[in-house]
Amino acid sequence: MQAVWFEKNGPAAEVLQFGERPTPIPGPGEVRVRVAVSGVNPSDVKRRMGSPTQKLAFPWAIPNNDGAGVIDAVGQGVDASRVGERVWLHSTGWMRPLGTAAEYTVTPSARAFRLPDVTSFEVGAGLGVPAMTAHRAVFGCGSVTGKTVLVTGGAGAVGFYAIQLARRGGARVIATVSGADKAAEARRAGAHEVVNYKSEDVVARVKALTGEAGVDHIVEVDFGANLKASVALLKDSGSLATYASMAAPEPAIPFYPMMFKNLQVLWVFVYEMPQSAMEAAARDIHDWLMSGTAQHPRYHHFRFDQAAGAHQAVEAAVTGKVLIDIASL
User: Where do the CATH 3.40.50.720 domains begin and end in the chain?
Assistant: First the structure.
């Protein structure tokens, strides 16, 4: 099969190769998927670069965790009726050498979710990490019905989906962004209010929008950088779910201010979410897709042999979702 792979960590243009690799065979509990589209996430870039937690653990690896395609073979213990099923993939390359930047990949059956016929492979390939993270970050601390939810980084892939899922869950949603173009994206996702953190005082603005009450829950893209503001904005017994802390990876925790407000913090690491949370997210995302109301990020398409360019686009923080077109199915 044709595939992209790397044999050492490093810059995309230096380590990503394109050519022939052996076609994988599904093992017990696995399905093989003929990939139509592969999705690229920041975590895929970190894995390829060799971040401290994602050093290359195999002689070679095919990048990317997300994708969409059609199951063409199943391993022992998997219902044969799954052959021919359209699926979207999540965490395909986590702790495994086979990602989605290939004509075929194998993955545990439980991580290949049925893709509705009304949903394109393009959309399916962009769901995995962003939509699963967003679902966990919105609902992991409980229902948001009737609550006010603050989504930081509302134009990012996770934030874009978090806005929609929170609204679908019955919340009032305020989003923060860094510019006018991103504000338009957050509004397209359905944010009731948008705050530009580059030009506005986020705490003062959100307080004004909430009648000085603050918010019930925060979906946080940069925990350390925004912690002071988060503590100021959360109501007593409020909650915060965070999935990154890039600006301050080892932040000092204001223990007593957080304790006195009885704040709850949920750490969201999508690749190791409890299986029950993955299944709940997959069900809700399926229903949401079937509803026909879902909006999706802008897509940036790259050819199969342009994987390095796709990874570089993610590193450049393009607004939207980066995809690699593998095959027409």
Answer: 130-271
d(CA 79, CA 90): 19
Give buried/exposed letters for 251-266 (b at 16+ CB in 10 A, else e).
eeeeeeebeebebbbb
Hey, what amino acid is at 204?
A
Q: pLDDT averaged over the chain?
A: 96
Phi, psi angle pair for 113, to nearest 5°: -100, 140
Q: Given this model, what pLDDT does residue 58 score?
A: 86
pTM above the 0.90 mark? yes
DSSP state of 179: S
Say which amino acid occupies 238: G
Quick one: DSSP state of residue 6? B
Asked if 123 and 146 count as a contact pair (C-beta separation under 8 A), the reply is no
Max CA distance (Å), the chain: 61
Instruction: Please provide residue 321's backbone torsions phi and psi, each rounded to the nearest 5 degrees.
Output: -115, 130
Residues 6+ apart with CB under 8 A from 208: none
The residue with tokens 């960590």 is 9
Which 3 state secondary structure label does DSSP give 149? strand
Residue 294 has pLDDT above 90, yes or no: yes
Where do you find CATH 3.90.180.10 in the chain?
A: 2-126+296-325
Domain 2-126+296-325 annotated CATH 3.90.180.10: yes
User: Tell me, what's the pLDDT at 51?
Assistant: 77
Q: Reply yes or no on whether the pLDDT at 55 is more than 80.
A: no
Cβ atoms of 278 and 286 closer than 8 Å:
no
CATH topology of domain 130-271: Rossmann fold (3.40.50)
pLDDT for the residue 53: 66
